[in-house]
């Protein structure tokens, strides 16, 4: 089974539509406060993505599909540069006809249905954006066109056909993301051991903690020897290597967002920049700067 199959097997993840409608004039919107992974599809017009006040904002246009596989602070806005504090929150209006100064959005949540599927999504990149003009699976663009046709016929948040289409888009977006990013199948194997899966999720969410061997064993309610045996069996990695891989995984998400290495190392659990560089090269086989060059 490929990585995408791992992530979506058995219907372990579904989508739910939260908002379907139109914003006009000046506005800002975010689902971050709900604490769930989310998706945002631009059905018409344009808007800008603000990643926690990082500049410049990213322009989104009709046909662009944005997934936050892990909940992350952001705003969608009507302006490329106006202060977030100066933009109002607004209620969506119904999509009724075309409008030159409006933005039509379909927003919702990704709902992993088990600890195993939570782990699988935790190991995907935080943010994944597919643009209408990108050379990706034709099925994603075809699903967008079907979605647009259904919305134009019935812009109802409770439309079950829309829900099925967003489920299908999730499947193909996950498939696309796993083809672009190396997801460690050995870490995915820990999904079959719930205490280990919960530990890996906790480390991803809090990489700055010390996470000693005793800490990790205690978190899983195992003795040190049992913990070492279980994690080796599940992943083929030692506990320290699992910890290093997860910390570097988190750093990759930060690097992709343009955050400098000197602002990253302590937030992912390293006491020095040199220690971070050594761990990064040991896990990735290359230095952070070289990784970023190849990523771009």
From TrEMBL:
Gene3D superfamilies in UniProt: Homeodomain-like
GO molecular function list: DNA-binding transcription factor activity; sequence-specific DNA binding
Alphabetic keyword roster: DNA-binding, Transcription, Transcription regulation
Superkingdom, natural source: Bacteria
InterPro entries: AraC_lig, Homeodomain-like_sf, HTH_AraC
Membrane-spanning segments: none
Location of the HTH araC/xylS-type domain: 197-294
Record bears the keyword DNA-binding: yes
Protein name, as recorded: AraC family transcriptional regulator
Organism (species): Citrobacter arsenatis
